[in-house]
């Protein structure tokens, strides 16, 4: 949301009230709020070159005929735009508009593994490994369970592994986390089996035992081999975006003095 500066633009009390009301509403709805300030101000956070869209600015100002009187286009300076304010002062549209943010921009939250810092990545890998150990231990103990002859343990444990491994790959787009979880599942299984030795009753030589032995590794391998298509989607979106000649220029961040 963009509003007047604290003085309402030129001190009009109605404009000042609108400014405060707009800022209150933006804060209540947690919407970013910026105020118009002079381009040479020390409080500038963002500047926008508006010369390429001068015709749109003129059309917008002309909608306020009851408030301002827009001067005609000067053939010698077609890009020049001036108007007379209600209090009789003539103003000219600047080539650059400047804005001050009501609050410092909040950095976006990390969405993928690559967005995390070093500590965040280490924590994510450790968490994935711990989750893999838990899933591996529970799966090793419960995969032989049957309900009315149906191998419910084999099906549920396989689905849990699938959900964990594929979920990590899709959510964080990280092969590292997938590898950590997959290795942890296999390690947990092998450790529990080794405790009972060759005659361990945990993983039997039957269908459920074979599925639990090989399915986690196969699922992890599938998730690791799955290509990352985010780069292709980003390039496709960039190619379909309007060209710079059709779109309004992007704002350049300013710097407070």
Explain what this protein looks like in three dimensions:
The protein has 257 residues and is α+β, with helices and mostly antiparallel strands. It has 2 domains: 2-106, Rossmann fold, CATH 3.40.50; 113-230. It has 7 helices and 8 strands. It has helices at residues 13-28, 54-61, 118-142, 152-172, 175-196, 207-225, 230-240; strands at 2-3, 34-37, 46-49, 69-70, 82-84, 90-92, 96-101, 252-253. Helix 1 links the parallel strand 1 (2-3) and strand 2. The longest helix has 25 residues, at 118-142. It starts with a strand and ends with a strand. Residues 243-250 have low confidence and may be disordered.
Question: Looking across the biggest beta sheet, what order are the strands in?
Answer: 1-2-7-3-8
Number of strands: 8
Strand pairing plus helix content: what structural class?
alpha+beta
Straight-line N-to-C gap: 24 Å
Total domain units: 2
Detail the poorly predicted runs. Answer: 243-250
- Whole-number mean pLDDT: 81
Shape: rod-shaped
Order of helices and strands: EHEEHEEEEHHHHHE
Number of helical elements: 7
Strand percent estimate:
5-15%
Q: How many strands, what sense, and barrel or not for the largest sheet? A: 5 strands, mixed
Helix content: 40-55%
How big is the Rg?
31 Å
Descriptive terms for the model:
three-stranded antiparallel beta sheet; five-stranded mixed beta sheet; Rossmann fold; alpha+beta; 257 residues; 2 domains; 8 strands; rod-shaped
């Amino acid at each position: 949301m963009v509003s007047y500066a604290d003085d309402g633009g030129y001190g009009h009390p109605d404009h000042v009230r609108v400014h405060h009301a707009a800022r209150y509403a933006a804060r209540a709805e947690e919407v970013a709020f910026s105020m118009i300030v002079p381009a040479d101000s020390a409080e500038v956070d963002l500047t926008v070159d508006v010369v390429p869209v001068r015709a749109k600015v003129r059309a917008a100002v002309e909608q306020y005929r009851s408030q301002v009187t827009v001067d005609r286009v000067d053939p010698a300076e077609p890009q020049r735009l001036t108007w007379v304010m209600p209090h009789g002062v003539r103003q000219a549209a600047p080539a650059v508009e400047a804005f001050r943010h009501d609050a410092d921009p909040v950095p976006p939250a990390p969405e993928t593994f690559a967005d995390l810092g070093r500590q965040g990545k280490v924590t994510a890998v450790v968490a994935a490994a711990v989750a893999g150990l838990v899933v591996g231990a529970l799966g090793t103990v419960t995969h032989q369970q049957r309900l009315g002859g149906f191998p419910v343990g084999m099906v549920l444990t396989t689905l849990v592994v699938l959900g964990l491994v594929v979920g990590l790959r899709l959510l964080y787009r990280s092969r590292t986390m997938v590898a950590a979880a997959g290795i942890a599942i296999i390690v947990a299984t092998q450790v529990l089996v080794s405790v009972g030795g060759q005659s361990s009753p945990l993983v039997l030589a039957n269908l459920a035992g074979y599925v639990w032995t090989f399915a986690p590794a196969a699922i992890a391998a599938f998730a690791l081999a799955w290509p990352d298509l985010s780069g292709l989607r980003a390039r496709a979106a960039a190619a379909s975006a309007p060209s710079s000649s059709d779109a309004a220029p992007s704002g350049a961040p300013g710097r407070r003095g």
